[in-house]
Design goal:
about 525 residues; alpha/beta; 3-stranded antiparallel beta sheet
Length: about 525
């Protein structure tokens, strides 16, 4: 009963819950939103403190962000006839300028249905139709707009979707490792949920999910597909769109990052970087923000141009990401960090679950505070001196929350121990009275459920001696065996058991009458009777 109570106490305890949470954090890829929010808050404060200690790169990117009113933006996404201002904007662009469009859905002018409808009108009416000239003009506008949108200097971004047909061949630098270990150490990004197919235009995905680290590429059909900011950067370097084949210009390797010819951008093993500009850092890049009407009435546009809906937060996020790439203002999670991060989580779990219950309150709190400061200091040093992004918010949060939980478990355990001690003291008192009165079975009944404390073991030893004094070797042997099961090398219990077994064997042999003794007794009884 005692062991069953201890087992139930261990299973349904905060200590076991902490151990299960640690295992869950190690193996789970999807964490609750509340945990991720708290983790981001911790990392945000440490990240901003590191920015205050670091020297930021000099702004050098000339980025113009054009805010399109909602009504005009919706016209672009509905019909070709509503894209007059888009055509005017493209005409305002200098030949050397790079244009990026942040789109919420594909442009309908490139859909096969619209193209086929215009073709039927042209083929069916020809010169006899008074609207033939209008149809020809509409087709000419469409072809001109398609030519501009498919030019190398124009990049189309589609929110959370992609129809890019070609991926980037991955140069895996870790082929010598087993596949299972590679998947554990260097996991691939999750594939995109859906795709939009367009026969002529290429859309590059825009990741709109709030996260400190931003993806430069995503996985689609076992290929690395560049995200919109990365492709915008590649277009600014006058590189052609990525194509499948050995002579491609854009490549990526887990331990090196992206390579654009001689240009390189280091990334994490998930193809991510942490930009120094944006909502996460609180630092805004130096850029020109103008309205569409002001652009159409002004001079030629030069440099990097980003166009999107005026009220869209994704436009601002994409602009800050592109500016971070242009200024080189970003941090990189090193390739060895995933292994170190998991090792830190294992160490934190061992410390909280195994060591904190053994140490004093002062030592537990002191070492926990030191560990938290060391984690924060490591992230600050890596960020300010080496340009590393070491996201230890999960370990930080696990220790910060786990320490009070384990201290509460210690308090609960102490209360349970006080209750057990009071019950043991009462049972030992009753056993002492029964032993003094010679009621040995009652003494055994009172001592048996008590915990294996020195007082209980000593009382059991005395009970075994009392059984031996009255010649009850069987019960004395039972008590000493029970005592040895509780404490293997308690006093001379093993010697006592050997001696009691010998005494019990001798007693059993002595109590059995022999045939000769039986014959003598019968003869004596016959003689007496005669």
């Amino acid at each position: 009963m005692q062991r069953l109570t201890q087992l139930i106490f261990f299973i349904f305890s905060l200590r076991t819950a902490m151990l299960l949470v640690a295992v869950w954090l190690l193996v789970s890829d999807r964490l609750p939103a509340a945990f991720l929010h708290a983790q981001d808050q911790i990392q945000t404060h440490i990240f901003r403190l590191g920015l205050a200690m670091s020297e930021l790169p000099t702004p050098k990117t000339q980025l113009t962000v054009i805010h399109v009113p909602d009504e005009e933006y919706d016209h672009w996404l509905v019909d070709l006839s509503g894209s007059v201002q888009l055509e005017q904007l493209i005409d305002k662009k200098d030949e050397s300028a790079i244009l990026g469009l942040v789109l919420e859905r594909p442009l309908p002018l490139a859909q096969p249905a619209a193209e086929e409808l215009l073709g039927e009108i042209q083929r069916g009416r020809k010169a006899r139709d008074v609207h033939y000239t209008d149809v020809q003009d509409l087709l000419a506008r469409r072809e001109k707009l398609l030519t501009a949108l498919t030019a190398p200097s124009t990049v189309l971004g589609l929110m959370d979707q992609s129809s890019h047909e070609h991926g980037i061949v991955v140069e895996d630098g870790f082929t010598r490792y087993p596949q299972a270990l590679r998947d554990w150490l260097w996991p691939w990004p999750a594939p995109l949920p859906e795709t939009v197919i367009s026969p002529e235009l290429q859309y590059f995905p825009i990741d709109s999910a709030p996260s400190p680290s931003r993806r430069l590429a995503s996985l689609e059909d076992d290929q690395v597909v560049p995200m919109f900011p990365l492709q915008f950067w590649a277009a600014s370097q006058h590189l052609p769109p990525p194509e499948s084949g050995p002579e491609q210009v854009l490549s990526w390797r887990r331990d090196r990052g992206f390579a654009f010819g001689i240009e390189e951008i280091a990334t994490s093993v998930k193809a991510e970087i942490t930009p120094l500009y944006g909502a996460f850092s609180g630092i805004r890049a130096s850029m020109r923000q103008v309205a569409l009407s002001a652009v159409l009435g002004g001079e030629k546009l030069t440099g990097w141009i980003l166009v999107g809906r005026d009220s869209s937060p994704v436009l601002e996020q994409s602009a800050q990401m592109i500016a971070s790439l242009g200024d080189g203002a970003f941090l990189v999670e090193p390739v060895w960090w995933p292994v170190v991060q998991k090792a830190l989580m294992v160490g934190a779990a061992v410390f909280l679950v195994l060591l904190v219950p053994l140490w004093s309150l002062k030592w537990g709190i002191g070492i926990s505070a030191t560990a938290l400061l060391a984690l924060a200091g490591g992230q600050l040093v890596g960020q300010s001196l080496f340009g590393y992004w070491l996201p230890c918010g999960d370990v930080w949060l696990f220790i910060a929350v786990g320490l009070p939980v384990m201290l509460l478990w210690r308090l609960k355990k102490k209360l349970w121990l006080n209750l057990f001690e009071r019950a043991d003291a009462a049972s030992r008192a009753l056993a002492s009275i029964a032993l003094a009165e010679g009621r040995l079975e009652d003494t055994w009944r009172h001592l048996r459920p008590c915990r294996s404390t020195p007082e209980t073991l000593d009382a059991l030893y005395q009970l075994g001696q009392r059984y031996e004094l009255i010649g009850d070797f069987a019960n004395a042997l039972r008590v000493f065996k029970h005592l040895r099961r509780r404490r293997w090398r308690y006093r001379d219990v093993s010697v006592q058991i050997k001696r009691l077994r010998a005494c019990l064997s001798y007693q059993q042999i002595h109590d059995q009458p022999s045939h000769e003794e039986g014959f003598t007794d019968d003869a004596a009884r016959v003689s007496a009777a005669g």
